[in-house]
Every structure is written in C-alpha cells, then in structure tokens.
Amino acid sequence: MVTWWGLVIEGYLATQERLMGEIAERFDLAPASFDILIRLIRSPECRMPMTRLAGEAALSSGGFTKVADRLVAAGLIRRAPSERDRRVTYAVLTEHGRDVAERARHACAEILRRRVLEPLGPAASASLAEAMRTLRAANGPGS
Predict the structure, then answer these.
(1) Burial of 128 (0-12, 13-18, 19+ CB in 10 A)
(2) Four-residue CA torsion sign, 119, 14, 57, 24
(3) Helix H or strand E segment including 136
(4) Dihedral through CA 11, CA 30, CA 41, CA 141, nearest 10?
(5) Among 116, 103, 125, residue whose Cα is nearest residue 23
(6) What does DSSP assign to residue 43?
(7) How much is the pTM?
(8) Which of 52, 112, 114, 116 has a Cα at 20 to 30 A from 128?
(9) Interatomic CA distance for residues 103 and 100, integer angstroms
C-alpha cells in the first residue's frame, strides 16, 4: 500500500515539475504566480479579494504579499480597494495580466494533453479525474 501511494505521489510530482518547468520557461512565471493568474482569469471580472486569493492558493499572508508584489511589479495585477468595504483589497488582472494568463492557461492545457492525456489515454484520464474528485470529497475541507 505504501509503495503504491509512493508511485502516485512520484507520478504527480514528476508531471507537475515538467508542467511548471515549461510554464516558467515560456512565461517566466513561478508556480505560485501562475496559480494566482489562473485563479484570477477564472474569477468574475478577473478579480478576487486578496485574503480569499491567498487562502485558495494556500499561501501565508506574507508569502502571498511577496507573490502579489512581484505580479504588481511585472504589470500583471493591480491592487484595488473595495468600494463597499474599506478593509477589503482586490487583486485585479491588468490587460497585460489577462493576456499572459490566457496564453499561460492555453499552454498549460497543451502541456497537460501531451504529458497526461496522451500517455494515459482518454479512459484512464477520466478514471484518474474521477478518483481525484472522490479523494477530494473524502479528504478535503469539511469532509
């Protein structure tokens, strides 16, 4: 059982390393920056409260601030105060950030097709996704 689980983890880590390596090479994005951009491009109005974004990305407040500062410096996001609550600050994709996020998302899909879907095939890929959904439901927050 432990060997089996080790193979699952090794397969994930090897694939994730290749995926993030290609994203870093093509877009000069660290994994945390890529994750933030993808979360924002999928959010309504390409914006999200910074505290929620940090939580979803599993980053500490300080760690998230460093990533956000780098993204702001690169012109990919901007900070915007909430119009309704002075305590809330949003991370918002800039036009440049939207462009980079969209291109990175499409590149990620292409890499996943090549690195996961082609080696596994459609049936095993679907089975893997369903198994991960089951594990997330059984072991995720609130389970």
Answers:
(1) middle
(2) negative
(3) helix 118-139
(4) 50
(5) 103
(6) S
(7) 0.86
(8) 52
(9) 5
